[in-house]
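Dear support,

I submitted the protein below through the web form. The confirmation email said the job was done, but the results page showed an empty box. After a refresh the structure appeared. I'm attaching both so you can tell me whether what I see now is the final result or a partial one.
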Amino acid sequence: MADRPPPLQGVTVIDLTQIYAGPYATFMMAEAGANVIKVEPPGGEHLRRRGVVGGVALPFAMLNGNKRAVTLNLKSTRGRAILIDMVRRADMLVENFAPGTMERLGVGWDVLSVANPRLVYGSSSGYGLSGPNRDYPAMDLTVQAMSGIMSVTGFPDRPPLKTGPAIADFSAGIHLYGALMTALYEREKTGNGRLVEVSMQEAVYATLSSSLGLMFGDGAVPARTGNRHSGMAESPYNVYPTRDGYIAIICVGEAHWRSLLGAMGRDDLLGDPRFSTLKDRVAHMDLVDEIVAGWTSGFDKQPLFDLLIARHVPCAPVRDLAEVVNDPHMHARGALERIDHPELGAITVPRSALRFEGTALTELTPSSALGAENDSVYGGWLGLSAGELQTLRDEGVI
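What the results page shows now:
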């Protein structure tokens, strides 16, 4: 029975984050029951401002539901003082500004930890708070280039590619969430807060494991492998054509290979020494792909998927985003939710991928208009009077 309170109920988070990495970490906190106060400059954070370009307002709505939106000018003396007052009442502060930004504003870890020794402070940046590359500009694209991801993405006879998704941003956001939860656990035992940091480059390094394995195996810098295994250590492992699209197929073990051959009606290949073992199939990878592709091209992708799944062959149709947004499985689990957003109309947004047994998904509150909770947060939570709030508005502090 889903009757337990969410695990972060009672935890207050001051969210100074922007774009993807930080907002994803704090979104997961909000979904886990935390009171997340989204603090933006009076003009709004960068991702909100992107909404002037058609369609790109959706990412802000995806990452900022269940947060209370306030505005605060941290370039003003009064704004910084209000932030310090908020921190005294909070459990966490999270930011993903360029390194040194908070210190230049006069509200870095050294100041905020004095105001609240129990504060857990989270920082995410491209290359970390130390090291010779600390101050390099860092966006998902540049981190993909610097980290080596682009060098192994794409086909060997074509230029490097970035991955379609913002993998560096969201990998950093996931790691940041983990670091903050670890520090929060420590604080509950010791009573002491801590600064935690996550580098986008370091967060994605482990994703290169297959390519690194190939490099350390033969000593050469690996070439791009297209849709083949990054370590060139599996076959078949590719995206194969169908009459109406493509299907991804991988055979991890011998049972998968035998099942695939059975589905293909090619049991005659079972005794072929070119395909007897994984090592043999990798050595004849081009031929394996040619045989499999010749067979898949005679099917539509969904019937072929159904056939292979029935035989326990790991595979999946290559779906477009419209198919994924309407995925019955994800909607059945509550992973995707169709909402009527007050600013954007009918949209589909994701929920946190984290699930907590015994606790129902929190009710989804759409992302708020800029500064929508100024009165309730600064007045109701922080205790400022109506007159003080009006003065802050007049002075451009909020």
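Response: this is the final, complete result; the empty box was a page-load delay. The domain at 12-206+325-394 is CATH 3.40.50.10540 (Rossmann fold).
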